[in-house]
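Hi support team,

I submitted a single chain yesterday and got back a structure, but I'm not sure I'm reading the token output correctly. Could someone confirm the output below corresponds to the sequence I sent? I've pasted both exactly as they appear in my results page.

Thanks,
R.
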Amino acid sequence: MGSDATIELEVRPVVLAEWAHGGAGPWVLVFPLLWLAIVAGLVLLLRRRWSTDHVRAGRAVLAELYARGEITEEEYRTRAAVLKERSR
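Hi R., thanks for writing in. Yes, this is the structure output for that exact sequence:
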């Protein structure tokens, strides 16, 4: 009852996508570009938030100076215009 038949298996590496005879194909560009877009988006988001926080803080200080009478209305408007221009 013994069978001497053997089965040969071919071991091949697992590939995400075979492109043009085993090359990585478009995945070589897709993943690095995706990560680049994510990092660039985070940097832009953080820069925008950081700059608007400083402008808000500057406006609060400016309003406090005006409320205490330490600057005139003209000075307030001039400085507020500068802050508004810098926030763009």
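A quick pointer for reading it: Residues 51 and 87 are 7 Å apart (CA to CA). Let us know if anything else looks off.

Best,
Support desk
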